[in-house]
Amino acid sequence: MTTPVASGTLYATVADLRNVAGGTDSGTGTLAQLTDEQLTLALYAASNRVSVYAGNIYDSSTALANPPGILHDLTLDLAAFWADKTYLKHKTIDPQSPIYIAYQNAMSILQDVRAGKILLDPAPAPGIGQETGIIINRIPAIFTGDDSGTRLNPATGTLEPDTPPGQWAPMSAGWGGPVYQG
Fold first, then answer.
1. Cα–Cα distance list, 59 to 11, 67, 68, 80 (Å)
2. What is this structure's pTM?
């Protein structure tokens, strides 16, 4: 077999495709038995379709041209379908085949990407980790700071234990002995 003439950017490797297709029996009786050249052609067919639907070629030439992770997965699903078509020598592909179902799912995602319903490279949600708390006090304002047994330390801005005014004063609760009445 000759070297593939196809060109473009590949979003997955032959090793990835062979690993996905291999299953648990080292690829016996699966498309993993295809040659590297045949698998490369399937990867080009898949990668080129992904680029067309995405509207960009993600070749990693700049920071903005780094491929989003989903392109790898979509490429493998499509490439497995194209490689399976080669492996089966153009026999009918069962509609219940996991490879065919994955292909349909990948194509559905790519059609939604083209329609603008799905972003390929979602960004982190804005403001995550930057939220501040809001105190909502639903208790009526019948208590004051003197009732809490705490005070605000102006130097540190933290609450400290405190004694309400008059609680330990000698005149309260009869402390301090006899009171002069004279």
1. 9, 7, 11, 21
2. 0.61
pLDDT for 77: 93
Q: Residue 139 above 90 pLDDT?
A: no
Closest to 21 (Cα-Cα) out of 108, 101, 83, 90: 83
Q: Tokens for 107, please give them.
A: 């194509």
Cα angle 139-169-156, degrees, rounded to a multiple of 5: 55
In this prediction, residue 1 carries a pLDDT of 47
**SS3 state of residue 99:** helix
Q: How far is CA 6 from CA 24, 44, 168, 179, in A?
A: 30, 7, 91, 107
Beta-carbon count within 10 A of 49 CB: 18
- List CB contacts of 182: < 8 A, sequence separation 6 or more: none
Judge contact between 79 and 43, C-beta under 8 A: yes
Ranges of H-type helices in the chain: 14-22, 36-54, 69-87, 98-114
